[in-house]
Design a protein that fits this description.
DUF2505; Alpha-D-Glucose-1,6-Bisphosphate, Chain A, domain 4; 4 helices; START-like_dom_sf; alpha+beta; 7-stranded antiparallel sheet
Length: 200
């Protein structure tokens, strides 16, 4: 599923960019989205004209479609890896489920947090080889681009484009639609946070 999310900010590009580069962005974002328990900055490094930022998101409850299922806490957490090139005012991003990132569940089979009976596209458990990330990508993928562009009148357009794919038997498309709704809420809140930080 492809998506595009665009916001216009009443701030010039340099101010919007400074807001984007602020270490305060993640924690402030976590306070604005009711479905998030927390947003923690795991990594924030600016070097050689590039920002590498890793934000860890913890949901306070699973998507409604999974209500009543026994999901590990890691199944409701993910990290966004964001790499921003200052000269281009643009970034690439992708999401990694926390089950890929250390802890007791780091090498768990993704099927342990998907509805019973689900199988990766193309077949059987045997096809789910490779690294933990390879196995997870058979079930879930989210990645895209992020760009800031100047507008007339000292304003800025922020554009996010991405793809979201959930491969879960029967309910995959429903999960995609519900997850995309949460993504839109999060980027709406991020735009509000950028506006606030642009005038601090």
């Amino acid at each position: 599923m492809r998506f595009t999310i665009v916001h216009e900010l009443d701030a010039p590009l340099d101010a919007a960019e400074l807001a984007l580069l602020s270490p305060e962005l993640g924690p402030r974002l976590g306070q604005k989205v009711s479905t998030l328990e927390s947003v923690v900055t795991v990594e924030h490094a600016i070097e050689s004209g590039k920002l590498r930022r890793v934000l860890r998101f913890q949901a306070n409850a699973p998507l409604p479609v999974f209500k009543g299922r026994d999901l590990a806490r890691e199944a409701m957490a993910w990290e966004e890896i964001f790499t921003y090139q200052l000269t281009e005012h643009a970034a690439t991003w992708h999401v990694a489920p926390m089950a890929l990132r250390g802890g007791a569940r780091s090498d768990a089979d993704p099927s342990s947090v998907t509805p019973a009976g689900s199988a990766p596209p193309g077949g059987s458990e045997a096809s789910a080889g490779g690294t933990p990330e390879d196995r997870w990508r058979q079930y879930f993928r989210a990645e895209g681009t992020y760009r800031l562009e100047p507008l007339p009148g000292g304003r800025t357009r922020r554009s996010v484009e991405g793809s979201l794919d959930v491969h879960v038997a029967v309910i995959g498309s429903l999960v995609e639609r519900m997850a995309l709704a949460e993504i839109r809420k999060t980027y709406d809140a991020e735009a509000e946070t950028l506006r606030e930080l642009s005038v601090v």
